[in-house]
Every structure is written in C-alpha cells, then in structure tokens.
Design a protein that fits this description.
This protein has 280 residues and is α+β, with helices and mostly antiparallel strands. Helices cover 16% and strands 43% of the residues. The protein has 4 helices and 18 strands. It has an 18-stranded mixed sheet that branches. β2, α1 and β3 form a beta-alpha-beta unit.
Length: 280
Amino acid sequence: MATKIKFIKMQGAGNDYIYVNSMEYPLTNPEELSIRWSAYHTGIGSDGLVLIGASDVADFSMRIFNADGSEAMMCGNASRCIGKYLYENKLTDKKEISLETLSGIKILKLHTEGETVSTVTVDMGMPVWQNKKQINTDTGEMIGGNITIEGKDYTGTFVSMGNPHFVIFTPDVMGINLTDIGPKIEHSPMFPERVNVEFAQVMDDGSIRMRVWERGSGITMACGTGACATTAAAIITKRARRKSTITMDGGSLEIEWSATDGHIYMTGPATKVFEGEIEI
C-alpha cells in the first residue's frame, strides 16, 4: 500500500531542495528517495532532499542528501530555508534557532516582517584551511596552489566549511566550461572525499561573481557554503575585505568573515516554491 508524504519545495538564491518534516513523516531510505525525487523530468526536481528532524543537542536537526543520493555535511541555503519553514509553520516561535548538522550546531537568526521570514543570517562557523582527509597534500592544505587536470594547471585555495571546497579565481568566470572541468576537479585524486568547485571573479565594484559545481549535485544555481568558502579564500589571498556580496546564478548572498570571533556569517533570502504530496 502506498504512503503519501507531504513535502515542500524551497529555494535559497536558486539552490532548491525538497524538504520533508521527518518528525511527522520518517523516511527509511532517504538516499534512494533523493535520487528519485530530485529528477526533473520524472520526479519533483531539485538539488536534493532535506530532512527536518528533532535533536537531542539543538532545537532541530537537518540532514541533506544530494541529487546522487550522497549525504552532505552542511548546506547554508538549506539551513536558511529550514529557519523559514519552522517559524512560518509555527513549529517554533524563536527567532534564534540552533540547528544540528553533520558539521556541528549552526545558529540561525531570523529576520521577520510580521509572521513572514524575509531573510536569515546563519553562523557558519570558522573556515578550516587544513584537513588531510579532504585534500591530499603533505600539509593537508593549499592556499593559492596548483593542481593539474589533463595537462592544465588550475590555481586555487582549499577551504573546508565542514564540507570541502576548492576556490579558483579567474578573470572571466562566465567563460569557464563548468560542465567539463567541474566533475574532473571534483573527482581528482587530490581530494579523497571529492570536492565542491567554485570559480570566482572579483568585479570592479568589489563584489564577487561565482559559479559552482557541487559535489554530488553538479552545477547548481547557488551554494551557501561555497559563497562562504569563496569569501574566505578571497580575503586570505588579499582579493577582498571582510564583507563581500557573492553573486551566483540564482541570486546574491551577503557574507562577512568576522574579525571579532573568526566566524563567517551568511545572510540571504529563503523562498517557498510550492508544496504537495508524493507517494512512496
């Protein structure tokens, strides 16, 4: 007998996921369902599946499954959408919510207009420059270093925001063939756990134009952790100041790397697309 699951599709800067309240609808096979439901022509269509759950250590929890079924550690855009969902569906009346993720507890600060959440600021924690599990170098780090893909060198900076990122600055971000080079860098032996790939261009007004190839999902309209990693990489390589506007295919995020506590703060919108039911 088929079971009907209620879901809501939301997007943050174009990064769209299917959200299920697993406290009401527990799913035993989210990896399989993420693959099936994420398909645009035969499913709902999304960058993946996000489960909103209870937590013993925070107000709520979040699990994220990419379109290929792999589980992600963190997603900034998804966390903003969860904040909006929880508040607007009256699952909490808090405007500061703690959220358990695989990369630690994140704090969401909701900015509201009446009963509507307009934007959310997420404390994304500190950028990590050294992680021998995520980058295969002697030191476990790479800042402005080179990797070679099919005979061509790419200069980039490794940043972990819980999940691994490789940020490459270029004078012409729109000229990059992301479909071709993205998966090759993602699966490079340099990155044992695979990697998210960001190509970024610092614009004349100081903003940064970024395009992303996400580990497990491919080209996406936006990536919150990628925007944070790009800002951190731009600052540490002396391309930007502590605050940056990161513009992606789906929209813009405001990113600040605080000089006070060393944390990166991401502010941006969260938007409901539609809700419905699907049978499993």
